[in-house]
Amino acid sequence: MSATVTIGSREARQKWRDLLDAAYRGTADTIIERNGKPLAVLIPYEDYLEIEAALDQLRAARRAGKTYEPLKGKAERGRPYTEIRADLEAEEPLDD
Questions:
Q1: DSSP 73
Q2: Do 57 and 39 belong together in one domain?
Q3: Is there a single domain that holds both residue 39 and residue 1?
Q4: Distance, CA of 59 to CA of 55 (rounded, Å)
Q5: Phi, psi at residue 79, to the nearest 5°?
Q6: Same domain, yes or no, for 39 and 74?
Q7: How far is CA 16 from CA 39, 44, 75, 91, in A?
Q8: How many CB atoms lie within 10 A of CB 93?
Q9: What is the pLDDT of residues 6-16, one digit of tens each?
Q10: pLDDT in tens, 42-92
Q11: Torsions phi, psi of 78, nearest 5?
């Protein structure tokens, strides 16, 4: 298991080559912060390739959640699925 290092963005700029080398070797995952808030993580490319699909799903779920949140609790803005399906079938039969 590689080490996890947390570093500020200013220091990360100064040590960028070393951070890239550590990621390439797989010796450290680096969390980069700005004003004490984590913003990004530098990981080996091979690790990224293995988790890329999971990241896409996570990001899609996050976008969906952000879209859903303002609508939650506002039933008057929504319509039941049966009504929507009936409207769609009135335009063109749907394949089941």
A1: T
A2: no
A3: yes
A4: 6
A5: -135, 145
A6: no
A7: 16, 14, 50, 57
A8: 8
A9: 999 999 999 99
A10: 999 999 999 999 999 998 888 888 777 776 766 666 777 888 888 888 877
A11: -110, 170
Q: Angle CA(54)–CA(60)–CA(66) in degrees, nearest 5?
A: 140
**Residues 6+ away with beta carbon under 8 Å from 30:** 4, 5, 6, 7, 12, 19, 22, 23, 41, 42
- Let me know: does 10 contact 39? Beta carbons within 8 Å: no
CATH of the domain at 21: 3.40.1620.10
Tokens of 52: 């890329």
Q: Could you list the residue range(s) of the whole structural domain that residue 56 is in?
A: 51-96
Are residue 58 and residue 95 in the same domain, yes or no? yes
